[in-house]
Request: fold
Amino acid sequence: MRCDSSNKLNQNVVEPYVMAIPGSCPNFKTCMNLGYAAIKQKNYQTALVNFKRALAFNLGNKYAVEAIGNVSRYIQESR
Reply:
């Protein structure tokens, strides 16, 4: 996580990822698994949505945050 110049944790690091996303996903683990399955199919947008849903279940989870970062990079690289 990033820190600002005063060494306080930057509270806005995760905020853009935590928002209501229409659809359903019953729990953190299922959302993550759906995201990983979508990556295997190279469906990065679906993966991103599911990782964001997972993060909403478990705020700040390092695996969800990392997955969001990775899949966001895949999307950027594919453009």
